[in-house]
Structures are given as structure tokens and as C-alpha cells.
């Protein structure tokens, strides 16, 4: 990736999925790689369960921490249906990384509304750079289901063109030492997708 | 070394670098982290005050005693602090005094969208507004310098997007602690009786005049000339959006939004053919520029409401949007915020929703109880309003069984105590409930006088709600466990039937509180054989409970015969459930059981 363009990554999902931490880690990696970085979250007032999105923008000089609609380069969606809520931020060339898992909203839990079907097919019809993974299962295989966000970062890292060492340094520092090797394994498993 | 910091972290850093020694605040999104972060630096004093008025008064006292002090609050907190605010402008401050006010365009976590800049103008106090984290760090220092130079309180205005965005900060070493200015008794300056205030009133106007002159050469009012076609006057975060959307335009970026640099504005206007003012919320700058007789375009194009982004600025000027248009996008279910699994409010508001009374509510997580399926709260205006409104409604309706006022523990301390006194004094019949979850939950678990711990972690005198209520003159004081539906219902009915004002303290720790009593309770699950699919357990609106039609479940996971009697079953997500047991009390068939009992 060149330094001149401002790159925009949008992390989306549901409160409690580790989206903020993932976007913090990504931002730190880009800072160490020498970019100007700005990051901003949009979330509602609940502690958990609501929609969460985090905008990360990096380049030689970044002004706005919020993306313009149509300008997002990579959408990293931690929940299948949430992918669709942010489609207007993308363009035909955007890459999309989806954790193929669902978290039911209250209306679905109460049986009042169905969970939308065929989301993956829909996304694949509109975008040609799509990565689908089961991040929680992959994280469980690496030692702890809560590392699903690290798996997602691994998948994202394949697009970012930044030296691996920045990633691994930041991942090591972001988590307790006893989880470090598992965490690197989770990251690698996402990266291989 | 350069670091990524939120605007709030950067304000705290800047305050530390300047040598601020005293900070007082009441938690409020998006301002909370400023005081929390500041409290962690060496050698500083920081406190959670009961409310913003008390925080400001404490900071005024500290400044008067010679310190550099700040009071930190969200935009609506300035309303609470407005009384001392308008008069400390007259007295001046001796040491440095900065009021940090964080606005919330889009009302991400607020009940209104007021624009704090009006306070700067109304109270005749200068206001600085940073656009990113490093500016936040620098501007808080500039604000203190200004305060000391002009003997005035100074506002630092942030917005949610400045406070909660992260950007690169270049921290500097802290100053050697500034010499504290000695306190001198000076009644003409500090005793604002009419005769003295009239004298200070003149000083204020002279000071404003000097500040207007200062604004013309203030380093952070910056002209950025990129050609004469069009120019934008803007300030704060909005500058970033406009700069990104129109890199070819010229900019006058104001670091000081009150008072405005008139000569600089006139000069900038003369250099561009078309002039815009781009600002979120009210046309604060625009109307003043118009009053200078300058032709300018503003709110006829840009929205009054909600925060902007680069797209809003671009679309307002060009009429075009670059949003990706996918015509066949399916409709999506909403994800409204919800009370957490194990929340102590759930049981209380389930009962309140069934009582058929009007529930005057307040500000906190429990405000979410207005939603389906609980529907246990009927109003929300401001901090403390629940008690005052319950009193007024109860007096008007003339019945004791019609109104319940509900307020959180921290909110009660903030602005409920005097209202409760009013119930006793003016003999109201309302029932007041304090949802005492042992913390300030909504802003992220801050301590308050009822928790017995200070911001800096010291054990302190713990407020006794029961003793306080008795002292205020409330004779009927009851304590209930809100996880016990039967007890909650019985006590509320008894107090609604009783004469005179009542206080019910619903005591149950927040599910997210680290020290919570409910920790260690085993999660619950649904016994598929006993569940009759009646959906009663769904009435508590717990995120851990869902209802699944048989068609959606894996084949063979339920018995065939069951399908004839019912359409589906309830399920509990064991990973979310924390075993609070409220749903268990609703199940008529005993189908909700402890996971361990099943194993």
C-alpha cells in the first residue's frame, strides 16, 4: 500500500465481541509502521448487545477519524448480519472479511422477526474480494474462543501489507503473557484464510 | 515518543503537563475518562464530586486558594453548574480555572443536543475548541495560560468525536509545578453582593474587550489559504471533515470559538469569493459573522442536528453522495441497547411494568426499561427529575397509588436528595425507588458517596441511604431485593397503599461490577422436557433467553410428540446467563434449572 492515499478500515459487529480492542491493535500496528493514524468508534449507550463500529484511517496525513460513505477499503465484520448494515460505506472494490457467525438481536430472540438469510451469497454477489471464516471455532482451536478478534486481525493482516513483526510485537504487548503464544497462533490461523 | 491517545486521555495529559493539581467532576459521557485518566498521574488531586455544581464550586475554591484547577463535565452538566459559572466570571479566579465541557452531537449517550458554546457567550467566558487529541493536549494548557493571564475562568469544549477518537499525540515533559498564587482577601472581588458585583460587571466587559484583541493574535486561530474560490470558517472536529471533503478550499480554523477574531474573519472573507461557515449544532459562529455584515452561507445548507462526517459536509455543498447504493439490500432487525443479563433493574422494572402506575424515570441504565417487553418507565428528562416529577404528579392526581419515581443511587446523590426532602416537607404521597446497584454503571463503574470509595481509591465515609431518608423526614423506608419478584411486588403495593411519602431501596449490585455479590452463581438452562413453550420467560427481555420454533432447531433435538402440543421452546445461552434467577420465578413448569443440577 502506498503512503499517500488515506486507507480506511471499518470494524463492525456487536458489543462484547472485542471489536474495540481489535481496532486498537490495528491502529497501533499502523502507527509503528510509520503512518499517521486516527480511529473512532460509534456505539450506543448500552454496555453490551448493541451495534458497534470502529473506523480506523491511516496514511501520510489523516484529517477525519470518520470515514466518508463509499470510501472504506476493507470492512471487517464480526457478525454476519452486521455486514449489511454498513454496505453504504463500501464501494465495488472494497474487501470484506466476515466472521460467519450470528448474534441474534432481541426481536429475533423473541421470535418477532426472522434473522436475514443468504447474507454470504448476497455479499459475494456484490463484492469480489470476500473472505469468510468461522473465527470463534478457529480461536477455540488455538486455545480460547475469546481470541476470535485476533483471528479476524490475522485475516485482515493479509490485506494490509505491513511487516509481520509489527503485528506480532503489538499482539504480544496487548495481551497477558500466558496468552501470547496462543494469540499468535490464532492470528496465524486467520492469516492463512 | 508519539502515542495514540483519545481526546480525553490527551486532555488529562495536557493538564498534567501544565501542572494542574486539582480536578473535580461528575461522570458523564463523553467526558468521564478525562478525570479518571488525570487521577492516575503523580502528585495530583482528583475527585468525583456529587454533581457538577459542587465540582465547579470545589474547583473555584482551589483556584482561589492559588492552584490551577479544572472542573470536568458533559454538556448537560454545565446546566447543573450554571449558577456558580455565571458569577465566577465576575470574580475571576486567582489561580487558573478551566471548565471542560464535552458536547454530544447526535446524542450518542445524552438526553439533548445542547451547544455549550452559548454558555461561553452568555457567561462571558472565553472558550477553546480542539480538533484532535494533540490539540486537546495543547489547548488545555493554552486555556490555563489564558486563565492566569486574564484572571478569568476558561472553557475547553470537546465533543464526543474529539473525546472518543484516538489520534497521534506527542507528549511533553511536565512543567515544574507553577508557583501557587497566594490567596488575598478581597471583598470587592470575591463578595458578589450587588454593590461589588456592579463593579466587577465593568471588569468583565473590559476583560472581554481585551480577549477580543487577544483572539486576533492567538496562535491556534489559523488561516490556511489554498486559493480564492471558496473559504470555510470552522472549528474543532468539523475542521477535519471539511478539510478532507474540500482540500482545495481555504480555511480559517478557529481554536478559540469565543470571543471571535473579527479582524481576522474580515480579512479571510475578503480573500475568498464564496464563504461558508461549517459547524455542528447551532449557527453560533455563523450568526456572529452575519452580524459583522459579512455575506456567508451556513445553516441553509448544513444540518442543525446530529454530528457531521466528511460525507455530510461534502453532500451539503455539492448535493452529491458517494454512499454505495445496493438496491436489493434486505431489511435488517435493529439492535437496540438492552439491560445486561443479571442486571438488578430487570426484576424491579418487570414488576413496575405490571403495576399500572406512571413511573417517572431518571438518567441511567434503567432508562432502557421503557422498551418492550419491560415497559416499566414512562418519563426521562434530566438528572433527578424522577422525584420532583413524581411529587408534582402525585399532588395533581390526588392519589397515592398512581405514581412511582425511580432513580439510580448515583443519580440520587447527584440531584435527588433535595427533591426527596421536598416530598417530606410538602407531604407528598408518591413512592420513590432508589435502584441501588452500588455504582455509577452507565458511565462505566465510577464510585460515588454511596459506595464508600473515592476516585483515587481511598476508603471513605459511606452514605447511608436509609438514615438519610429518615433524617429528611421520610418515615416509610423499605429495602428490597430486586431479584426477588414476589418481595418487590408486595413491598411496592404496600407502599403505594400507604399514606405519605415512601422510599423503597432496591439493592442489588450491577452485573458488571467486579465485587458483585451474584458472582459465582451457576448459570441456568431450560429443561427441554418440561418447557411448554409458553414464552412467559421472554417477558423479562433478557439477552440470554431466546425462543426457537421447532422448525429452526436441528432435527432430532426434540421429541416428535412434543411438536404436537407446542410450536417451540425457550433456550438460555449459558455463556451469557449469570444465574440471577429472575426468569426462573416466572416459569410455571419449573423448566428453568441450574446447569449443575442437570449434570
Could you explain how this protein is built, in words?
The complex is a heterodimer of chains A (193) and B (599). In chain A, helix 5 (135-142) packs across helix 8 and helix 6 packs across helix 8. Chain A has a single domain (7-191), classed as Pyruvate-ferredoxin Oxidoreductase, domain 3 (3-Layer(aba) Sandwich), CATH 3.40.920. Chain A has eight helices and six strands. In chain A, strands 2-3-1-4-5-6 form a six-stranded mixed sheet, with helices on both faces. Chain A has 193 residues and is α/β, with parallel strands linked by helices. In chain A, helix 2 links the parallel strand 4 (74-77) and strand 5 (95-99). Helices cover 36% and strands 17% of the residues of chain B. Chain B has a seven-stranded mixed sheet with strand order 3-2-4-5-7-6-12. A five-stranded parallel sheet of chain B has the order 14-15-16-18-17, sandwiched between helices. In chain B, strands 9-11-10-13 form a four-stranded mixed sheet, sandwiched between helices. At the A-B interface, helix 1, strand 2 and helix 3 of A face strand 8, helix 10, helix 13 and strand 20 of B.
Quickly list its features.
heterodimer; A: 193 residues; alpha/beta; Pyruvate-ferredoxin Oxidoreductase, domain 3; 6-stranded mixed sheet; 38% helix; globular; B: 599 residues; Rossmann fold; 7-stranded mixed sheet; 5-stranded parallel sheet; 22 strands
